[in-house]
Design brief:
By secondary structure, this protein is mainly alpha-helical. The chain is about 75% helix and about 0% strand. The longest helix is centred in the first third of the chain and has 27 residues, at about 5-30.
Length: about 170
């Protein structure tokens, strides 16, 4: 594939991956929480964003993230969470984009854990700014524990997906 055909193919694939991430985000938003602690969720749509880092580029991963977060807030009816999702997602993205070259595919799970930690830090920062309540910082350790667990899980899922995509079918 050359030129225009490749660009169309790439754009179509990115649109499909964004749609998959959005569907996962909306479905997860409608599943009852895993715990009674507010703000904790698995972040399964991040599997797609992590995969785009490896399949395409950082710029493409950023576009998938932004479209998913913005449309996800509207599609799930959770507009009030948009500043938290954007701040956490963008801080996570910036850190992952900087560290990405240091992490081969077999260490994607570790990049995901680091990203999840920074996602939580971004959320706490925006919560403090929006509420004017610095005491919210005491909630950070709880978020960091849950973020580490969910980052580990989503990182392994993305790593497994990418491994299977790169392995030729032997049937």
């Amino acid at each position: 594939m050359r030129g225009r055909n490749f660009a169309t193919f790439r754009l179509t694939n990115l649109a499909l991956l964004t749609t998959v991430a959005l569907i996962i985000f909306v479905v997860e938003a409608n599943i009852p929480p895993l715990t009674s602690i507010p703000g904790i969720k698995m972040g399964l749509a991040n599997i797609v964003t992590l995969s785009v880092f490896y399949l395409y580029s950082r710029k493409d991963a950023l576009m998938v993230l932004l479209v998913r977060v913005i449309l996800g807030a509207f599609a799930s009816g959770q507009i009030m969470t948009l500043p938290y999702s954007l701040s956490g997602g963008l801080l996570c993205f910036c850190v992952c984009a900087l560290l990405f070259p240091l992490f081969p595919l077999k260490r994607l799970w570790l990049l995901s854990v680091i990203g999840a930690v920074f996602h939580n830090i971004g959320q706490i920062i925006i919560a403090i700014v929006l509420t004017g309540t610095p005491e919210i910082i005491w909630y950070l350790p709880i978020l960091l524990i849950s973020g580490t667990i969910s980052g580990f899980f989503t990182g392994h899922a993305a790593q497994s997906l990418l491994f299977h995509l790169s392995t030729p079918n032997k049937s």
